[in-house]
Amino acid sequence: MRKKIVAGNWKMNNTLDEGLKLASEVVNMVKDERKGDVIVVLGTPFIHLSQVSKLVNSTKDVYVSAQDCSQHESGAYTGEVSVSMIQSTGAEFVILGHSERREYHGETSEQLAEKLDKVLSAGLTPIFCCGEPLDVREAGNQESFVCSQLTESLFHLTKEQMAQVVIAYEPIWAIGTGKTATSGQAQEMHKAIRKHLATKFGDAIATETSILYGGSCKPSNANELFTQPDIDGGLIGGASLNARDFMGIINAY
Ligand code: PGA
Questions:
Q1: Among this protein's residues, is 98 annotated catalytic?
Q2: How far is 235 from 105, CA to CA, in rounded Å?
Q3: Given pLDDT bands bounded at 50, 70 and 90, which one contains residue 178?
Q4: pLDDT-derived band of residue 151, with 50, 70 and 90 as boundaries?
Q5: Residue 175 — pLDDT band, cuts 50, 70, 90?
Q6: What mean pLDDT do residues 246-252 have?
Q7: Is the dihedral of CA 162, 148, 40, 82 positive or negative?
Q8: Helices (H) and strands (E) in the chain, counts
Q9: Cα(187)–Cα(195) distance, rounded to whole angstroms?
Q10: What's the rounded Cα separation, in Å, for the pair 172 and 195?
């Protein structure tokens, strides 16, 4: 079913103590103040997953996500973290293909396809990120760029698998820059993404897929974005590091 999701992406921020404090602030606010039926996810660094999962699992109001995983199951991959390790912490989501991973760690579409398979076979929910850089947007090629990202990493999935995937559209020029896509620009891309998914998986799966917007989303612009017909929530970086701001986005529907 198409769900409304607001997911925080803490990136490489917060020591363990700071992260636990932030997570408990969010959990308490969600318990007391959440107005709608939005699913709230905290995307923490690996070291927080276990303890934040324990903290949120007592409430079931908030879910926990890793920010990446290895495409390998186990073995000699120093520094990597497997999907079964993530699963053993109680986390239920995994962000995949964030533009920072693609850019700084050279992640390819092929690797992401393998990571998706691992996440799905463990029964976890992938939040698959896509989005174009500024030069592609300026050349007007954003739709074909993003559709290729989807084709390359997702189009080998079965319909049943695709039904478990959440997409996050994050124009790279809007990430952490304070430059949000206008609600019109975002809606246009979300609609194009849904149409592209339909060409492979059919209308029913495309209609049911949650597509989140990411890129300088904040309490002041979230409502305008989230009320667009093809936008089903957000992947929030900077504003997820402050519980009050994050709550403002959660309640923006
Ligand atoms: P931002 O980051 O909200 O700080 O722009 C979004 C993201 O990278 O997921």
A1: yes
A2: 20
A3: confident
A4: very high
A5: confident
A6: 97
A7: positive
A8: 12, 8
A9: 12
A10: 21
Catalytic position from the list 92, 170, 190, 196: 170
- The separation between CA 223 and the C-alpha centre of its own chain, rounded to angstroms, equals 18
Residues of the chain with pLDDT > 70, as a percent, come to 100
Residue 235: beta bridge partners?
7, 214
The predicted model scores a pTM of 0.97
Tokens (6 digits) for 138: 């300026």
List all residues whose CB is within 6 A of at least one atom of ligand 1: 9, 170, 175-176, 214-217, 235-239
- Fold of the 5-250 domain: TIM Barrel (3.20.20)
Contact 109, 129 (CB under 8 A): no
What is the spatial distance between Cα 253 and Cα 238, in angstroms, rounded to a whole number? 19
Question: With the CA atoms of 136, 212, 150 and 76 taken in that order, what torsion angle do they form, in degrees rounded to the nearest 10?
Answer: 110
Closest atom, ligand 1, to C-alpha of 168: 9
Domain locations in the chain?
Answer: 5-250
Q: How many whole angstroms separate alpha carbon 226 and alpha carbon 242?
A: 20
Using alpha carbons only, how large is the chain's radius of gyration in Å?
17
Q: Which residue from 103, 188, 105, 100 is spatially nearest to 147, judged by alpha carbons?
A: 188
The number of the ligand 1 atom at minimal distance from the alpha carbon of 214 is 6
State the distance from the centre of ligand 1 to the C-alpha of 74, rounded, in angstroms: 30
Which ligand 1 atom is at minimum distance from the Cα of 9?
9
DSSP character string of 79-129: T---HHHHHHHT--EEEE--HHHHHHS---HHHHHHHHHHHHHTTPEEEEE
Residue nearest atom 1 in ligand 1 by C-alpha distance: 237
Q: Reply yes or no on whether 170 is catalytic.
A: yes
Give the pLDDT score at 145: 98
